[in-house]
Amino acid sequence: MYDNNYPNSNSNSNYENTDQPNANRNNGSYVQNGAGNPYSGRTADHPYGGHTADDPYGNRTTGGMYSGNAANYYGNVYPNDYGQMNPDKGQKKKKKTKEHSGFFKKALVSVSLGVLFGIFAGVGLYAVQSVTDLFENEPKTQETQQSEALIEEADEVIEDAEEATGKQVSGLPAQDALSDSEDGIRVTDDAATIVSDVSGVVQEVMPAMVSINNHYTEKMSFFGQSYVNEADASGSGIIVGKNDTELLIVTNYHVIADAEKLTVQFVEGSEIEASVKGTDADMDLAVIAVALDNIDNSTMDQIAIATLGDSDSLELGEPAIAIGNSLGYGQSVTTGVISALDRNITLSDGSDGTFIQTDAAINPGNSGGALLNMKGEVIGINSNKIGGSVVEGMGYAIPISSASPIIADLMLKETKNRVAEEERGYLGISGIDVTEDVSQMYGIPEGVFITQVYEGTAASSAGLQKGDIITEFDGDSIRSMDELQEELEFYAKGDTVEVTVMSASNNGYVSRNVTLTLGTKK
């Protein structure tokens, strides 16, 4: 505001000029050498010096507000050499190097893709206009002609971009240009499969799914006292076939174990009692049967038989669908993928098995239900017993390719109905379990080791001896005394059965089949 008080003054200063940042000034200060007047150049009429009547602040023209400015609002408030502080400013230019050339290529590709987007927009407009012209029989409009010109121009730009970069741009982009990196290591291709709607598959397969209710008597022991309690457990099943008199359903063995009464609920809600057809405790499989005479025609019209697939052809990451009676609330659907194949798992009873692993949720009640592929084929039989609730996102299913031969065999067995306790047959032995661990430790077969044979019983009459190991009862494998007792619940006194035992010899254990007639417990 004060004339010549800021840098750029021509008066002498009490500051050293050589130390100042601006070479073209004498470091004017507020204290000047002119006649002891701090505001140098002023007169009595002009206390601020150097100004005229038209220019009260001096050294400015009508074009500026402060001294020395013409078209500049602040004039010479800044040093004269302000514009010289960066002498190279405005003169620096980027030198074309290989790096800049690479950047230019990338930029050119980006611009070309942008132009390509414009091409598609132009083509869209051109197509709409062409159709309109066809129906209205009108000549091309100016916009249509411009669109055609734009397409031709864009084609030229794309060709130039491809020549500059050596990459195909018009293919958006060429897969060959992306499949390998510069160092020769293969780069995985982009691929995405989203399973968002499985309703069609579920609609076709759901009629083949059933819910199973197991009513059993729970036995408990506390402080030497035995207690019994009636309870119910739920599970799932899959309709896999029928014969002349029965509808056949596969499920897990543990779903129907100890059942005093089995009830099957079909897709439309009807409930019918079922009987055990055959079991394989080792594979945790069972087949149950429902008499066709007990199924209404309306129910038969709504149910279906499932199609069994091939689990040996599965691939990791393949979509999977699980259907089952989750938590006993009724049929529900979960989806996921095949997480692992041939997963070896040790079960709670010490036995090992090979299973399919999936992240489709498998909860209590899902056991015995179906694991499906996207064709609606059964690729596995779900089992919550394997994974349990300890981990999350890891469910397991018995591979259908392993289960199919066993299922086919169980379907041919004679249907068993539980016999009243007072009418049940009696074998006449005491025994202990030979588990897998004991079998490996002592080199003896798994099954029931006979510790005593009672005289006058079916076992004694058939020649069973202490030390024999029962491995099968009437064609069903036996691995524990509990399993043997459960089998006997389906046989009445007087029934003839075949028992397979392993007997010790000089050459190890030898298998033999014994036919016996069950008696009455005395």
Plain-language structure description:
The chain is an alpha+beta fold. It folds into 4 domains: 98-178; 199-300, Trypsin-like serine proteases (Thrombin, subunit H), CATH 2.40.10; 311-409, Trypsin-like serine proteases (Thrombin, subunit H, Beta Barrel), CATH 2.40.10; 421-517, PDZ domain (Pdz3 Domain), CATH 2.30.42. Helices cover 23% and strands 28% of the residues. The chain has 11 helices and 18 strands. It has helices at residues 98-136, 142-165, 175-178, 199-205, 253-256, 297-300, 384-387, 400-411, 436-442, 458-462, 481-488, and strands at residues 209-222, 225-242, 246-251, 259-265, 271-280, 285-291, 319-325, 331-346, 352-358, 370-372, 378-382, 395-399, 429-434, 447-453, 469-473, 476-477, 496-505, 508-517. Strands 1-2-3-6-5-4 form a 6-stranded antiparallel barrel. It has a 6-stranded antiparallel β-barrel with strand order 7-8-9-12-11-10. Strands 13, 14, 15, 16, 17 and 18 form a 6-stranded antiparallel β-sheet that branches. α1 packs antiparallel against α2 (142-165). Residues 1-98 and 169-179 have low confidence and may be disordered.
Count of helical stretches = 11
Q: What is the CATH C level class of the largest domain, in words?
A: Mainly Beta
**Strand elements, count:** 18
- Tell me the series of helices and strands, N- to C-terminal: HHHHEEEHEEEHEEEEEHEHEHEHEEHEE
Name the poorly predicted regions: 1-98, 169-179
Summary?
The protein has 522 residues and is α+β, with helices and mostly antiparallel strands. The chain is 23% helix and 28% strand. It has eleven helices and 18 strands.
